[in-house]
Amino acid sequence: MGITGNVVIKDGQVINISHIYSLNFRIAKEIIGCSEKILPYILNLNENTIYNTIILSPPGRGKTTLLRDTIRSISNGLQEYKFAGINVGVVDERAEIAAMYKGIPQNDLGKRTDILDSISKDVGMKMLVRSMNPKVVAADEIGTKEDVDAINYAVTSGVKGLFTAHGSNLNDIMLNPILNKLYELGIIEKIILIDNNRNTNLIFDKYK
Q1: How far apart are the first and last CA of the chain?
Q2: CB-based contact 89:65 (threshold 8 Å)
Q3: Whole-prediction pTM value?
Q4: Number of C-alpha atoms within 13 angstroms, CB side, residue 162?
Q5: Which of 72, 97, 146, 196 shows the greatest Cβ crowding within 10 Å of its Cβ?
Q6: Which CB contacts under 8 angstroms, 24+ apart, belong to 125-128?
């Protein structure tokens, strides 16, 4: 839930919001099958994994919904692609991807998916790599230096990444001083953009 109003800060940290002005209720919703159009772009069939992928769009266009269904698809496996299901580790920092309730995901993230709920993305990714043997780690809305460091740690440990980020085009990635580091390091292999009509387009392919 998003909240606006008078923010109370102590020692540089937000400790309260008083005199609430508005609320934005974000309800986790799954759309089974919505990832079908992007799967041909991101599946690495030769190695039975995915390419390091970022799903890009401004707020409100369905990044998390697309991420959720992609996780489900690669976790369960895809018979039409002869793609065996793989272990996916999800860091659900704001409990929007899985919508966990008492340790049980309310959304379908697949049968080979492990979820860390309500933990920072950078700490969660490192925990998953060290202890859960993921083939892919996934997280929503990356954008801090710590996120990039954790992604670099995961990738150099032999794990692929599936993430979302805010932006309207490839230039936004290049101008973002944090996300651009992933590009400069050669980590990003594919970028999928959700446009204003909610169509999905491959706007970056490292191998073309």
Answers
A1: 40
A2: no
A3: 0.92
A4: 34
A5: 97
A6: 125/89, 125/91, 125/150, 125/151, 125/153, 125/154, 126/150, 126/153, 126/154, 128/89, 128/91
Q: Which two tokens stand for residue 18?
A: 């008083």
Q: Is the pLDDT of residue 176 over 90?
A: yes
Taking only the tens place, the pLDDT of each residue in 40-74 is: 999 999 999 999 999 999 998 999 999 999 999 99
Write b or e for each residue in 177-187: b if 16 or more Cβ atoms lie within 10 A of its Cβ, otherwise e: eebebbbeeeb
Residues in the chain: 208
Average pLDDT over residues 179-208: 95
141-155, pLDDT tens digit by residue? Answer: 999 999 999 999 999
Farthest-apart Cα atoms in the chain, separation: 56
Q: Which H or E run includes 56?
A: strand 53-57
- CA nearest to 88, candidates 46, 118, 133, 52: 133
CB count within 10 Å of CB 173 equals 20
